[in-house]
Amino acid sequence: MPTPSMEDYIEQIYMLIEDKGYARVSDIAEALSVHPSSVTKMVQKLDKDEYLVYEKYRGLILTPKGKKIGKRLVYRHELLEQLLRIIGVKEENIYEDVEGIEHHLSWDAIDRVGDLVQFFEEDESRIGVLREIQRKNEEEQ
Ligand SMILES: [Mn+2]
User: What distance in angstroms lies between residue 85's CA and the mean position of ligand 1's atoms?
Assistant: First the structure.
């Protein structure tokens, strides 16, 4: 299992490759706000653990194992953003909150969050019911 930090890297690398077709050390460093030397170090570790193949002057590609987990990590991040949006968390808090919780939930919990998001999306009046509760709670404060 990748550590939280490895997960952040795999997630970013997967998104960069999806968006641009490639992931450069400098782009990864920028996306994660870390020093390029930290990226090089982590990329070497991810290579050793067979999540990607890194060739210094040719860039990096994800292995099938890296792609599979990358896809799940991006899904997990997006799902948690959806959850926070549905429950009415302020837009300005959503990204950082997801970064804070995403590594600490089991895949079981993620699947259950998926059910909950589906529950709201299948009938948007359910979001309306929630908003009504939230409106009342705010009035009472
Ligand atoms: Mn994330």
Answer: 15
Q: Residue 99, annotated ligand binder?
A: yes
Radius of gyration, CA atoms only, the chain? 18
Question: In angstroms, how far is CA 5 from the centroid of its own chain?
Answer: 12
Q: Is 81 annotated as a binding residue?
A: no
Distance 139 CA to ligand 1 centre (A): 34
**SS3 for 105-118, per residue?**
CCHHHHHHHHHHHH
| pLDDT digits 0-9 by tens, 12-50 | 999 999 999 999 999 999 999 999 999 999 999 999 999
pLDDT exceeds cutoff 80 at 61: yes
The residue whose two tokens read 């009415």 is: 88
**Domains detected in the chain:** 4-69 (1.10.10.10), 74-140 (1.10.60.10)
